[in-house]
């Protein structure tokens, strides 16, 4: 099932082929002078993939308003079609990460097959106990897995267990748990007891995990709770993961830290204890802004990948996902651009000569060590990324191909806009 005409992709790729060959050749010669083989880097770029969140293809919003985009997906079937376009053009987003109950259907085996028609598989399953659903007996206004009332905790546990069941049918191997639990007032709740309540409830979910599954614990410093959050930081996340057991690991969402936090150091620490689950990629200036990966601070993204590439000999098995809110752009364009920026950081980090870097560090040659990172970061690896896409049948320039296809305008006719004001998270 193909969303964009193969003829269109082929003709645009053909039109740009000579320039691509020239740029790729020039970069190959530049890298060869540094003793690097461009083909090995292109092979790495071709093997790379990051998951797209199903909710990311819808237009996002803020607390103040949501301005719906044209031809927005109405349900999981439309979302899969949009994710299919992202994968078709970029060839670097082979899985989608669903969110329940937002993506509920009656037949998950059929949904798995539907996704496979777009050449998509399912990544981690996300539970949602940060808002109330229509048919839900107990409210999450004052929390879910850390709620003072055990009945509410049980309801949240059961939802997570249902997510695991759905995930099994979809071929997923992980459950991501992010909760909004916390307090807005000092004294509102006992902070120690809330954490104990959380661990008690999470223990019940953990007991229901299939043996080949992993549970990803996602921390977040603040919002929706503003005074205290139960899993506020990587310390709380690590304590929870260590308490629960080997199948529980810590997921790092780049936007979930205080400004200026040294996230790459957190990554190094979690790798050290074998508890790094993976990432939710996005960018931010102030908080959990959910801006496009690499749009504000691409150097930070590179430094995160520098830690990951450095730790490759340890045999990391990580989950990579984009988690963004697209309020002022076409979500498909933002997700394609973000997927390419994330792949860029990965390839740039792969350029670092690890042996030479270790030698400079051992000799305390500060500037030489630093310049090795900067040289990698300043190398424009765009021709490698383009080559990896084209060799796999993707687009030389995914955004240009998408715009030329008229996909969004066609979807605007097929998918009528839902009228009325709305706000909040997608
Ligand atoms: C939240 C968290 C979490 C959650 C998502 C929902 O990052 O990953 O699943 O956004 O939209 O801020
Ligand atoms: Mn996230
Ligand atoms: Mn977030």
Distance between the termini: 26 Å
Strand content: 5-15%
* SSE run: HHEHEHEEHEEHEEHEHEHEHHHHHH
Assembly of the depicted chains: single chain
- Give average pLDDT, whole number: 97
Strands side by side in the biggest sheet? 4-5-7-9-10-11
Largest sheet: 6 strands, parallel
Cα-based radius of gyration, to the nearest Å: 22 Å
What is the 3D shape? globular
What's the tally of helices?
15
Give me the count of strands: 11
Proportion of helical residues: 40-55%
User: Which segments are poorly predicted (pLDDT under 50) over 5 or more consecutive residues?
Assistant: none
Bound molecules: alpha-D-allopyranose, manganese (II) ion
Structural class: alpha/beta
Briefly characterize the structure:
This protein is an alpha/beta fold and 426 residues long. It is 48% helix and 9% strand. Residues 55, 126, 178, 218, 253, 280, 288, 323, 425-426 line the site of alpha-D-allopyranose (AFD).
What does it look like?
The two termini are 26 Å apart. 48% of the residues lie in helices and 9% in strands. The radius of gyration is 22 Å and the shape is globular. α3 crosses α10. The protein is an alpha/beta fold. The model has no long low-confidence stretch (mean pLDDT 97). It contains 15 helices and eleven strands. It has helices at 6-33, 38-47, 76-90, 108-117, 150-170, 191-207, 234-244, 263-272, 298-310, 331-350, 354-362, 366-378, 382-391, 398-405, 407-414, and strands at 52-53, 95-97, 121-122, 125-126, 174-177, 182-183, 214-218, 228-229, 248-253, 276-281, 319-322. Bound molecules: alpha-D-allopyranose and manganese (II) ion (MN) (2 copies). Alpha-D-allopyranose binds at residues 55, 126, 178, 218, 253, 280, 288, 323, 425-426. Residues 178, 218, 253, 280, 323 line the site of one manganese (II) ion.
